Amino acid sequence: MTLHDLVVTDIDGRRVPLRPFAGSVLLIVNLASRCGYTPQYQALEELQRRYGPRGFTVLGFPCDQFGHQEPGSNAQIRAFACDHYAVTFPLFAKIAVNGRDADPLYRHLKAAARGVLGSTAIKWNFTKFLVDPAGRVVARYAPFTPPQRLAGRIEALLAGRAASVHARGAQAHPEA
Fold it and tell me: Which is catalytic among the residues 29, 35, 93, 130?
């Protein structure tokens, strides 16, 4: 099973397969609106606007497991993200990232990229997972890591994506 085989629930309660994101570079983040790291919404949106046209998408998953910092409903979460940060990246329904009720997506992410000292637990809001176009988790970043610090790694993955797309096109249309 790959990340692209999973199905998640969007902020409006619709089931959404991750398969359409195959071929894209993803940054998956657990979010909260009342966290010291909440201003990272702005930097995440900046990454989305800068790299989105090249095949990059931030996927935001609200979570209320850390200090009750995401107490609102899904509608309130969307309103907050849109009103305060003009978020255009996809937002999903509030989930659990740890424990018995952890969402299958986060079980997958944590197994693929362990944290400090091999821990699988998410330590706090705004933990970030970078996923390559094939759906492989290539890095896990701590909540305190500013999203803009990932720009170089995102650029490299997008460059590899572009080269791969170009190579497939060349194979599909060989020159005579």
Answer: 35
